[in-house]
Amino acid sequence: MKIAVDKNQLQKGSHAQSNAYNHRMMERMGHELIGVKMPYGDYAEYTESVHEVIERRGDKYTKMDLAPRVRIAIDRKNSISEICGNVTSKSSEHGRFRDECIRAQDNGCRFYVLIEDEKIKNLDDLEKWENPRIKPYFWKKAKVDKGLLPKTSLKQKQPPASGKKLAKALRTMEEKYGVTFLFCKPKDAAARIVEILKGGNE
Fold first, then answer.
1. DSSP for 163-180?
2. Which residues, other chains included, contact 93 with Cβ-Cβ below 8 Å and sequence gap of 6+?
3. SS3 state of residue 107
4. Among residues of the chain, what percentage have pLDDT more than 90?
5. Structural domains of the chain in order of their starting residue, each with its CATH number
6. Which DSSP state fits 147?
7. 100 CB-contact burial (10 Å; exposed 0-12 / middle 13-18 / buried 19+)
8. Where are the beta strands (DSSP E) in 29-163?
9. Given CB 3.0 to 4.6 Å as the disulfide criterion, which of 18, 77, 126, 142 pairs with 167?
10. Are 112 and 182 contacting, i.e. CB atoms less than 8 angstroms apart?
């Protein structure tokens, strides 16, 4: 199978390094990876329909040119902390991720978010997840409240989300935007991506 990979996933730097293992595994399975300006997600099947647009438009093609052609897309998250930042923060990252889900929904794309973790298998498990940033937040807040640290040392006003709060947010997004959140161990991510693209999660 030919797999379209978002070009940002292939560029040099820490982001590309975190994907290197998965990409090597996909290639060892016999799949060809092709860098593409993805309209949403990191991976999709590189179909004849996608190829036709790229051939016809050349370097001038845009992400949205491909939006109606991508029927299944996968957004890979390398940790629960990453999806937590995407969903529960009030930063521009939250807005970007929400808009990506909406674009996929509007174009009839089945949009999956694959989250890597050694222990968490589903949203029920996620409810019991302990956010490693919670204890440091309250430790620092206690120091601020006692005047031992300046208020500026607290970079966020609200405590980091708990597993229960995060699971609730993801369920809401599934219902509202049609996105599906899945979990797998890091070593299984490449095979899981291929399985989903072949329709193994329908």
1. HHHHHHHHHHHHHHH--E
2. 85, 86
3. coil
4. 69
5. 2-129+163-197 (3.40.50.10130)
6. T
7. buried
8. 32-36, 43-45, 72-77, 110-116
9. 126
10. yes
CA atoms within 13 A on the CB side of 100: 20
Q: In sequence order, which ranges of 107-187 are alpha helices (DSSP H)?
A: 123-126, 134-145, 163-177
Phi and psi of 189, rounded to 5°?
Answer: -60, -45
Between the alpha carbon of residue 14 and those of residues 31, 78, 83, the distances in Å are 23, 12, 17
Half-sphere exposure of 24 (CA within 13 A, CB side): 7
For 28, phi then psi, to 5°, come to: -65, -25
Residue 198 φ/ψ, nearest 5 degrees: -85, 0
Q: Residue 88: its pLDDT value, please?
A: 81
CA atoms within 13 A on the CB side of 152: 0
Locate 136 and state its tokens.
């440091």
> Rg of the Cα trace of the chain?
19
Paired tokens of 10? 């292939």
For the record, the structure tokens of 74 come out as 């996968």
Tens of pLDDT, residue by residue over 90-102, are: 666 778 899 999 9
Pair of tokens at residue 144:
């601020």
